[in-house]
Amino acid sequence: MSVRLAGRGADPGIRTEELLLGIDFGGTKMAVGVADGQGRLLAHRRVPTHAERGAPQALDRALELAGELVAEVGGPVVAAGVASPGVVRPDGIDLAPNVPGWERLRLADAVRDSLGVARVAVDNDLNAAALAELRLGALRDADPGLVVGIGTGVAAAVTVGGTVLAGHRGAAGEIGYAVTGGPWPGTMLELDFSGRALDRLADELGVAGGAAGLAAAAERPGAARDALTVRVDELARHLVTCCLLLDPQRVVLVGGVAGSTLIRGLLVDRLTEVLPHRPDVVLSRFADDAALLGAVTLAREAVPAAR
Known about the structure:
22% strand
């Protein structure tokens, strides 16, 4: 599949015939895209991660797909950006439990070695999505901003002054580890509210279709709606705290679960009820591509302004 996306104005550091590569690794799906020097996607594809098969096969298949797309489009790759779950270090990745073995990967080295790309920038996937919102999307005119990702897992990213805040150890926004329930220390928010958590809840209720099927069933009064509302309430409590701490101008929701009109409506209702100053709450217009576009933006911003 090929798409076109308008990017920013001309960048003197990148010639138009040079390509940018973006790779978005997710717990359920992976996306690879090739863009022109201005960040406009020329071709991209999405494939399943097959997390249960482990990290090496996912990385190998993504790199193979990247090589195919680069050959298909044609042209030298001047830089690559990689979006990954967890906190990325030069020698590994922390807080990425959804794909066995992911913590042992060295993504920048793997891209350099496999594709011969000298400049490789790697960041957390939601931070990459937040960067895309800052440069291309809903946060271009909003400051501070909060991006909340509800997909396979749940996390947040904070933007202030046109920058995504990484935090002291690069773990800012890892709200999936927030304490929920009781007795102390209870459990983690991601075990209560995330795509995988809602998949499990759907199975427990005998609802087909996982999280999407549960959201559809919850459109009608009944057990599915009651159970889902309890989980949404838990997420809403943590988002209220985030909003009180940051006072964001706008909250952008990304990820597959965020696409549910019902879930978004319940969240907005709960924030409206208790916050003294509720921010705008919007759905990302990038659908499933926010992190991929963020990866391309990472690549673009890794190229010096003048060469």
